[in-house]
Model the fold of this input.
Amino acid sequence: MSEDGVSEGAITKAELAELADLFDKFEFAFDPISTSAKEAESRFEDRIREIFEQKVVPAYPQLGFSIFCCKVRSLCREYLKRNAP
Done:
């Protein structure tokens, strides 16, 4: 595990792209209380929980979900900056 809380391979590039897309839809939504923004946020949180339970808990049981979630959000922001249209 790296010092930043997420090891290489904990999230694949495809998973990061998927999560970043969902993140963008609610974090930067014109109307953050819209149904579509809320649905994207719910799917984002469900997906993070799924990845955490499947990949992180078995390998790094000492890592808390909130730390993992914060790191994933940070990775999504970085991904969106690098891949801006």
In short: DSSP finds three helices and no strands in the chain.
